[in-house]
Specification:
The complex is a heterotrimer of chains A (126), B (110) and C (319). Chain A has a single domain, classed as Helix Hairpins (Orthogonal Bundle), CATH 1.10.287. Helix content of chain A is 70%, strand content 0%. Chain A has five helices and no strands. The longest helix of chain A has 32 residues. Chain B contains four helices and no strands. The radius of gyration of chain B is 17 Å and the shape is elongated. Chain C has 319 residues and is an all-alpha fold. The radius of gyration of chain C is 22 Å and the shape is globular. The relative contact order of chain C is 0.11. The chains are: A mainly alpha (126), B mainly alpha (110), C mainly alpha (319). Chains in contact: A-C, B-C.
């Protein structure tokens, strides 16, 4: 096993972890965080591919190793991910402001003073 | 001469690493926010300073040395500001933040 | 080689541990703090993957600005959290989801292990075609010459994102000042930081853009630093955020994409293709686009962080 493979496996694990968080965490902010983890894992996989495709530029004396095309796309992706995250956060804050909840259920939640009722309904689908 | 500079690098960077280690242990083990801040900022100031000092003999030119020094000074500036802000928060508990910033709910997990 | 592998393995384990923390910890605020630490370690991984430009973007944008955005949201949403936790899926469902996610991870891991042995690469193509652009940094060359259409679409897509953020505002607030930035109580330390740091930060931002032509760096990294300096000044309360109906502000937001499109369209006549640069003028045109685009991107990123308008009242009095 070499370094890029190691980080590639790390990226695969990050996608799995993020996916689990996205599905299992009921809070929308946690879902946004988990989604960022998934994106990060995908970028890492892409970065590993970029490193494997490198070597040519270093041989040509350009100093930087790695395939610049995927790297440029990762930078583009990071910027778009930030833009998407900011929209999601704005929507979430507005949701909390107008409806008083931060989860994505369709039905209105019961009054917050009765936590026992909610505990009996385990399924929080989104 | 080269050897002496290399030895200086090794000693200074190792000392810096020890400061970081001590600061981290302090951050995890000290009882309240103010003492933890003390440990953290000590690690930042002295640890990073020693690492930068150790790296100075290894840089290629005066511009790189200036860049390293700038990194240290900027870290000092931001670190001391954040320390001030957190200490202010810790001294005057804010009802909004209390559940998330109270000492004990922080990083002191085993 | 083995030493490097040990360090890399430790790095990967730390990152995975922090990712686990982000997913599993109870309080969202702590999860966000973990996410920031995660992002900084991720930047080190990018350096290890020989992608210094990506490392800078990750540290500045993926960690710095995103971290600030999420910290602010987590602090404001903290009162809702206990209600969230009770709505978790049941244990059986969680186990099932965990198994399926593990299957996804295994599939991706198999893909990583079975990647084709002579890796497909566009690097030699870029290396051959970099000299005509006059740019020394291959990533910048790809962003602004070879795949300029991607960069153009991206700088345009930031604008709908910003409009999307603005559009969640309440009706009477439309066109007012953005209101999502935290406004800590006035403190001399923060004021000092907001007065001392921006000159250096602006210098660093311009340096990153200028250097990006030949060395790691570029407009996104530079624009992020510029946006961060602006946000710092706004948070410290030294300046009020501009009202979003201001015409000068809106011109600033779109001028980068407009100049990019204008130069790209003129390429149809001068160089025979959209976004093609005429012979010998590639470098100055790229620099011109970078300069204007940096300002627009910095303003857009800053306003994305500043959030939807909250009316014309001073920020501290809302909510």
């Amino acid at each position: 096993m070499n370094d890029p493979t190691l980080f590639g496996l790390c990226g695969a694990a990050l996608v799995g972890l993020g996916l689990y968080g996205l599905l299992c965490q009921p809070g929308a902010l946690r879902k946004i965080l988990a989604f960022n983890l998934i994106g990060s894992g995908v970028f890492l996989l892409f970065g590993v591919i970029a490193l494997r495709g490198g070597g040519v530029l270093a041989a040509a004396g350009r100093g930087i190793d790695g395939d610049p095309v995927p790297q440029a796309l990762i930078i583009t992706g990071l910027v778009v991910a930030f833009a998407a995250t900011s929209i999601a956060v704005a929507l979430l804050l507005r949701l909390a402001e107008t409806s008083g909840r931060t989860t994505l259920e369709n039905e209105a939640p019961p009054a917050p003073s009765l936590p026992g009722e909610r505990a009996s309904r385990p399924d929080g689908e989104s | 001469m080269r050897l002496a500079l290399d030895i200086l690098t090794i000693v200074a960077v190792s000392l810096g690493a020890i400061f970081f280690l001590a600061g981290t242990v302090g951050l995890l083990r000290f009882p309240d926010t103010l003492t933890r801040l003390h440990a953290l900022t000590k690690a930042d100031n002295l640890g990073l300073g020693l690492v930068v000092l150790g790296l100075l003999p290894q840089v290629s030119g005066p511009l790189s040395a200036l860049a390293l020094l700038a990194v240290w000074l900027l870290a000092l500036l931001s670190g001391s500001t954040v320390g001030q802000l957190l200490a202010g928060k810790a001294a005057v508990p804010d009802p909004d933040r209390a559940p998330t910033l109270t000492p004990g709910a922080g990083a002191s997990h085993d | 080689m083995t030493n490097a592998l040990i360090v890399d393995a430790a790095l990967a384990l730390l990152v995975l541990g922090l990712a686990l923390w982000v997913i599993a910890t109870r309080a969202a605020y702590r999860a966000v703090v973990g996410f920031v630490a995660y992002g900084l370690l991720m930047a080190i991984i990018w350096v290890r993957l020989a992608a210094v430009d990506v490392a800078m973007t990750e540290a500045a944008l993926g960690t710095g600005l995103t971290g600030l955005l999420l910290l602010g949201a987590a602090a404001r949403l903290a009162p809702y959290e206990t209600a969230e936790f009770d709505r978790r899926p049941g244990r059986g469902l969680r186990v099932l989801i965990g198994l399926l996610c593990a299957a996804v991870t295994l599939g991706l891991a198999a893909v990583v292990l079975l990647l084709p042995a002579p890796a497909p690469s566009l690097a030699s193509l870029v290396a051959d075609n970099l000299p005509p652009t006059g740019v020394g940094n291959p990533v910048t060359g790809v962003l602004l010459a070879h795949r300029a259409i991607d960069t153009l679409l991206e700088s345009v897509v930031l604008l709908p994102a910003l409009i999307g953020v603005w559009s969640v505002a309440a009706n009477p607030a439309w066109g007012g000042r953005p209101g999502s930035l935290p406004r800590p109580p006035a403190s001399s330390a923060l004021t000092l930081l907001a007065q001392v740091l921006p000159p250096f930060g602006i210098l660093v931002g311009i340096h990153l853009v200028w250097n990006g032509a030949d060395d790691p760096g570029g407009k996104f990294q530079g624009a992020t630093v510029l946006a961060a300096m602006w946000i710092l000044v706004l948070i410290a309360g030294l300046r009020e955020a501009p009202a979003l109906r201001e015409r000068r502000l809106r011109v600033l937001l779109v001028v980068g994409a407009l100049v990019f499109i204008g130069i790209g369209a003129s390429g149809i006549w001068l160089a025979g293709a959209f976004l093609a640069y005429p012979e010998g003028y590639a470098k100055p045109l790229i620099l011109a686009i970078e300069a204007v685009l940096t300002l627009s991107i910095a303003a857009t990123l800053g306003l994305l962080l500043a959030g939807p308008p909250a009316g014309d009242r001073p920020i501290g009095t809302t909510s």
